[in-house]
Write a structure and sequence with these properties.
It contains two helices and four strands; from the N terminus they run E-E-H-E-H-E. With 104 residues, it is of the alpha+beta class.
Length: 104
């Protein structure tokens, strides 16, 4: 399975962010770039316990927006730094903008 890197390409001050979190880098294991965006967007899903009646929650992550984040498939050498074994699609590393630490 391929390893993908999502990174922002819009200035943090741009209004296109609409108050969404900005990630400096998100590393994802997935079969395709599209699936990598879907997996990465789960980082921003709101934590909700159940619902009321038949309500549905609308959700729009910045990580699935091609104008905010570009995506690049990592080379085998780059990918080995994050993951050297096969597995299910997953976020391997996520660094919020302005943070030195990684969260997975």
């Amino acid at each position: 399975m391929a390893i993908w890197r999502l990174y922002p390409v819009v200035a943090p001050s741009d209004s296109a962010w609409l108050g969404r979190p900005i990630w400096e880098e998100v590393i994802v294991r997935a079969d395709t770039a599209g699936m990598a965006r879907v997996v990465a967007s789960k980082l921003e899903y709101p934590k909700r316990e159940g619902g009321v009646g038949n309500e549905s929650h609308s959700f729009n992550s910045g990580l699935d927006n091609e104008r905010l984040y570009w995506i690049k498939k990592l080379s085998a050498e780059e990918a080995a730094r994050f993951d050297d074994s096969p597995g299910n699609p997953a976020v391997l590393s996520a660094t919020p903008l302005g943070s030195e630490s990684e969260h997975a």
